[in-house]
């Protein structure tokens, strides 16, 4: 018997709600709450079983706390936007409820991705005897668990880690982002950063490029070095890692549109005055771009996200690649959403299941790689994101 409140009725919220609803023995009572309750109701109407919906502004700690105190759920699954992480954590503290999210806190006024704000809640969560599980999506999330699994079963020491995120799908639109456009563009236009020999090395946005030959017929694609938040927690929890990088594929078409939008100032996050009213260019751009949830029925092709790890096993060098391949159209058939939301929503459901079943349970603030990866990896196979492990002779990346 458990009750969860899912906050956020966007692309990811839709998938988490579908996946939780498929497991009534774990998720007995589900409430989907968001700023706009109509969106919650539209998702609820797609489900084979009844759930409840609610309206909440999660930026408003008092409102969020009142909802938690009235409902007393076992867990809050936060799949609203990164800006809401801290207010929802504050509400969880006030009401004594466990917390899970899929992206680290970001202040709205600055595209800055780091765990410091949420890690600062460690003592407060410990003292309140509640837990926060941070970053239970795919990347961060599954990539952290893959790393922990490699360390547990394949390598005594990980020396080099490359996380590679490939979307080989096509939605047929001239330009659209696969998840919230504002969050996506803030991330992509930020400076790149990777970990090398105990320090961060910064690179200009999308200035480091390589090519990777993806498995199972996906084939070679250009990949670009970016900063991604799991690098911070993974290098903290596996201090033996000498180099950790994150790569993502982008099509030339996406990059061309992004360059023009940047050049004309449409990706800015500083307010500008338009007809006497302050607007933020990136938020206006979001309003005119396709809603990512509208891409569900249009997107074809597959994603391939995985970790290439090089290290030592029994004194010998070894390279291991763990990845998942996910098909956009199959995801749509199952939960009416494309693979980007699917690959985030399924791990959010599994993270919640780990907490509710007591498999991952400890007070304080935790990242995914700090728990035993095995039960999570088993559930990935069972609930829609099966993975493969292969041993490689070379990483396949240019050094
Ligand atoms: P969407 O923009 O589709 O959905 C966000 C939802 O949150 C919307 O329903 C929105 O409401 C709601 N929301 C926004 N602000 C508030 C608020 N103040 N109070 C209540 N609800 C609010 O985003 P996605 O579903 O694509 O992404 C959800 C989260 O998942 C993001 O944090 C994103 O960064 C993360 N993510 C993580 C990934 C991973 O692999 N770890 C990958 C992809 C995404 P409204 O509809 O009214 O705007």
From TrEMBL:
Residues 4-133 form the Saccharopine dehydrogenase NADP binding domain. It comes from the Bacteria. Keywords: Oxidoreductase. The gene is lys1. It comes from Teredinibacter turnerae (strain ATCC 39867 / T7901). GO terms for molecular function: saccharopine dehydrogenase (NAD+, L-lysine-forming) activity. Residues 137-385 form the Saccharopine dehydrogenase-like C-terminal domain. PANTHER family: CARBOXYNORSPERMIDINE SYNTHASE. Coiled coil: none annotated. This is Saccharopine dehydrogenase. Its EC number is 1.5.1.7.
